[in-house]
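Data availability (excerpt). The following record was deposited with the supplementary files.
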Amino acid sequence: MFKLIRLEWKKNKVGKYIRNALILTGVLLLMLLMVAGELESDEVKYAYGGDMLKAGVEMFTNLSFIIFSSVMLAAFIVSTYKDKTVNLMFSYPISRKMILGSQMASVWIFNFLALVLSKIIIFAALVAAKRFTYISADSIALGSGMFYVQILADSAVMISISFVALPVGMYLKSSKAAIIAGVVIVCFTQGNIGSYTLMGNIPFYTVLMGISAASAFFALARVETRDV
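Predicted structure:
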């Protein structure tokens, strides 16, 4: 399986996605530092400190990599159905389930690792920069094991949720549809209407993860007989 995953990364030139993920992380960090640099009053300093800073990092990284995942799903999987190159892949002496599973795994593993590393890099940079800005990084416990466990768990949930976009793109055989579905997922999971938000809503996230898991299961179950 891992050989197939590596083949998917090589075939889709994963280097450009690594570059784009690094650029995205840099842009997010710069944006957070710019906001911190504009703070002048103690009231704003207080509002931007503590859990507020941590929540901001979580929100921006999550929404960015949910969309990033949907883009990769469109490129790695949906586009192969759209341009019929999947027919050539399915002619190999390898089960279709193994091929589709490796495609899904290649996207999931990449984005999970990218999101985890992006959060750690941004948190570490903000802690290092706190002496030069008004931000308070006291809630960022880089020396705590639970801090990293939380990052790993949250990242796994967010990337798993992003796979809800896959069946939309596969059903419509449209890369644009998959990406738009990713944007819609971001609006529901990271947005808010007034004071109401579903961000951090565990029951809602559980439902989305169930939908994502069911979508992946049925996609794999039908791939052997589905006419592409």
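Summary of structural features: The first helix runs from residue 2 to 11.
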